[in-house]
Amino acid sequence: MTNQLFTLITGAGQGIGYAFAEACAIRGMNLVLVSLPGEGLRERAVALQAEYGVTVHVMELDLTQQESCSKLLTYIQELGLRVNILINNAGIGSNGAFEGFSPEFYQKQIYLNITVPVTLTRIFIPILQKEPQAYILNVSSMGAFFNMPQKEVYNASKSFLFSFSRSLQIHLEGSSISLSVVCPGPVDSNPRLVEIHQNLKGLAKKAVLKPSEVANIALDGLLTKKPIIIPGKLNRLLLALNGWIPAALKKSMMKKEMHRQAGLTKGLKSN
Fold it and tell me: Distance between CA atoms of 248 and 226, rounded to whole angstroms?
């Protein structure tokens, strides 16, 4: 009997999202991929189908639009698909002075990083409950554990997603749904970040992971029902040490790092 189950991935057009799609296809998982229009995902979906023998549906959708989540649900229902894995990956990052971004940008960032994963989790839980075993993966960030200037709203949104995931895990205990939250550190998820990370030195540079590494570690953790997934040994070490570092020293380190990153970003923009 052929596999009739599907994995739904948001933000699948590039970076970690597409790495999830490829890692799932390699494992023989059928896919429903959601991306912004114009990211070339349909062509790559055809290639995934041909190479790995899986079924791939693509929905080009801007999830920051009010009715998008319900449109996605309707799309799944009209196709009659059985979804047993939901990966909430879509999100908007930012790095720069707080007042350098418009209120509208922050509203969009908060909506995509917080409202969308909460909404999709809520509306897909009844679908996931129909399966003997189902999974939800929320993509948070190492930034959820740190107070960082230049990333105030982004880190706060990821902190929300982490707390939401941990609370919902307790609620889902004993059910057929297992929920995991993954917290990646720095990832070469787009050309701009690759260029920024090339300027890193020492341990900071060694902490950078490729999207495929994060995706495979996250999937392994998800399928073995690991509640919290921290990709990379250095990131796990940093998190373990976080509780031992004095607050004043952490504040100084964060300010120094953010000033350095701001300088790198300015350098890239001027090129």
Answer: 33
Name the nearest CA neighbour of 139 among 181, 169, 179. 181
Residue 113 DSSP label: I
User: Residue 201 contacts by C-beta under 8 Å, 6 or more apart in sequence?
Assistant: none
- 138, 116 Cβ separation under 8 angstroms: no
Rg (CA), the chain: 19
For the beta carbon of residue 148, count every other beta carbon within 10 angstroms. Answer: 18
- Residue 137 lies in domain: 5-269
* Region at 156 (left for phi over 0; alpha for psi -120 to 50; beta for the rest): alpha
Task: Choose between 256 and 152: higher pLDDT.
Answer: 152
Domain count, the chain: 1
**Integer Cα distance of 50 and 45 in angstroms:** 9
100-156, pLDDT tens digit by residue? 999 999 999 999 999 999 999 999 999 999 999 999 999 999 999 988 888 899 999
CATH code for the domain of 125 = 3.40.50.720
Report the distance separating Cα 163 and Cα 167, nearest Å. 6
